[in-house]
Amino acid sequence: MSGPSDYQPTNPALKWIERRLPIFGLIHSSFVAYPTPRNLNYWWTFGAILSMMLALQILTGVILAMHYTPHADLAFKSVELIVRDVNYGWLLRNMHAAGASMFFFAVYIHMFRGLYYGSYKEPREVLWILGVIIYLLMMATGFMGYVLPWGQMSFWGATVITNLFSAIPYFGESIVTLLWGGYSVGNPTLNRFFSLHYLLPFVIAGVVVLHVWALHVAGQNNPAGVEAKTEKDTVPFTPYATIKDLFGVSCFLIFFAWFIFYMPNYLGDADNYIPANPGVTPAHIVPEWYYLPFYAILRSIPNKLAGVVAMFSAIIVLCFLPWLDSARTRSSKYRPLAKQFFWLFVVVCVLLGYLGSQPPEGIYVIAGRILTVCYFAYFLIVLPLLSRIETPRPVPNSIADDVLSKSRGKAATAASVALALVVAGGLLAGSAQSAKAAEDDTPPPQKWSFSGPFGKFDRASLQRGLKVYKEVCSACHSLNYVAFRNLADPGGPGYSTAQAAAFAADYKIKDGPNDQGEMFERPGRTADYFPPPFPNEQAAAAANGGKAPPDLSLITKARSYERGFPQFIFDFFTQYQEQGPDYVDAILQGFEDKPPAGVTVPEGTYYNKYFPGHAIKMPKPLSDGQVTFDDGSPATVAQYAHDVTTFLMWAAEPHMEARKRIGMQVFVFLIIFAFLMYFTKKRVWANAH
Amino acid sequence: MNPDAATIAAGAPIEVDLTPVAEGQDIKVFWRGKPIYISHRTKKQIEEAQQAPLSSLKDPEADSARVKAGHDQWLVVIGICTHLGCIPIAHEGNYDGFFCPCHGSQYDSSGRIRQGPAPANLAVPPYTFVSDTKIQIG
Q1: What is the CATH number of domain B22-137?
Q2: Which of A258, A380, A397, A670 has minimal Cβ neighbours within 10 Å of its Cβ?
Q3: What range(s) does the Cytochrome b/b6 C-terminal region profile domain occupy (chain A) (predicted)?
Q4: How far is it, in rounded angstroms, from Cα B74 to Cα A308?
Q5: How many folded domains does chain A comprise?
Q6: Cβ separation B101–A283 shorter than 8 A
Q7: CB-based contact (8 Å) between A189 and chain B?
Q8: Closest-CA residue in chain B for A286?
Q9: Would you say residue A1 has pLDDT above 50?
């Protein structure tokens, strides 16, 4: 793509092909001989990282689609079965789900890099606009992918986002009907989203080819923002850029692996482990984190149509960036004012993202409005104005000159880091105060055998928990996704296959129809699942005062509580993800016979200290001495609650031990690999500096 | 890409028997995948709905235009918030009506928007009284 290649294959077979289709010459000129500026920094490796992420998402996605069922009644279950039964299905799913977040994370860095170094300026306008198109396609793909597991957040996210289009005058309603394929979000919606979610990544791949093509016509921008002029300014793509990209990619993979193996649900929402229910809205609908800034813009405008227009304009405005910012100097390195405003803009985007995740009340709404104005002001006022009034510092004559005078500009970086720290500190102090207010009904953190990077389930606790479930909980709560065979799985309660079979044989399982067309009962086999206590949800609701007891298979992942800022940042480093177990344990122990003075609970409900709203339909399920343990563990509510919660955590994630074990192996490998890449890179670049 | 024949057929009118709904209670039925609230309003709720001055409303509409004449006690509305489509909770909020937990819109006992970001009142589905205790929706 960068002029005629002088590549001549020597192998006769390759020669034969090359004369008819010069593909090797194309590859050689684009990815081997292609000249890259020699002063590129590591922010430029994100192009390679994004290509890898796209390939990885397509690969994992294609395999997941082989096991997924796009039907409103079956989708949720099929995703759970992928995680539980498909070989390494949990790994595929975590890679694909966390991969989407990583993809966006990388694309945001890639975009901010382009913004900072003026990569959108002449002659790279088309390159930039193609990038914005890719970003829009990614948003559509990511949104539709999030709908596929068909959990509560999938369903209600789809409802809220598709309803955005109803704000369009005249055509709005018909567009929404087309998106739904019915009168509301339902099975046809899921089917078309699945089809489009499979299609769009390939469209993205096509636009990426155009993006790379445009890049190779104009050549890469670089931190100095001056065009490469002589041979001295560039190095060949291979080996220089390839090895540098490989090092960048391996570092990124370490970050990625942290989510895949240790924090798979950190970026997700607990509500999405509850199957979609068109009759119940979650209290707080939040999109995935990568849409939050735009969600905040949408909500900060009180008029529905104007809000939708503002949200889409926030992205479309990027297309006009090459003409809004007409400054001749590309790189913000040499633009003292633009540089400061750039960092302010980054802070505005991060704060908007935070506001998007908060309930739209009081101070958050006002802050959202101010920041929305700031967001648009950056593009529509600051950049056009700066390009007229700012006096840039002199740019180096050539890239080679820039490489020679490298030590400058360090102080400014330090200043911006300091600014970021001050802002973060301010946020920290602010939210620490607001967090204090709501502290007393937060479940107390417990010690769990399965927490942390080396956590394992306590086998004895799992067995005791199973006993508590069988003797107490199973009277009302089903455990639909757990089969008797799972009791003998590695990483589980540690029963033998024979013990699991004996356990199963105690149950009566409804089977049939037989040759006479009648249903019959037979003893359970290991392949059977725990039978539900009620034949259907309506029966369960009718027997329990109008509210069906939830299925417990995923309860420890489907329940959570707000950790708040800055706690959720610390949680990332400490790998704290036991909100669910803490909550379940606290609920089981939080019953009080008499509500505290001044609190009344409606008839038919019971006071529970940790239940949101304190009025729970479930009567106190456990009392001291109710279940006897063979191993002499204390027969107390605290012990029961702890054991059954451990058991339910295993039921929700039976492959957790494998996940953590393989995670450690992957980490060791990736760290060694990254070191090797780093030293190879140093070696390759030694003669280039 | 428009709804297929089976989906349209499933969206045919339905009949709902109102006898089991006591005063002050409401039921939620699904029609075309949408929740429809049928409220048996109390005297207090009816009075509040009728006496609210139209000038104080964001989307002015008289209560009499939202219920069928002679059946003042029955309010039938589509339980989908006109903001972004969440389901409001009945008997909550400051107006004896509905409260949407998503973005805080509040509707009164006639399903009219009183507070919050929603632009319009809860929609009234097409329905007729087949008899005094039975309605047909659609």
Answers
A1: 2.102.10.10
A2: A397
A3: 227-397
A4: 35
A5: 2
A6: yes
A7: no
A8: B102
A9: no
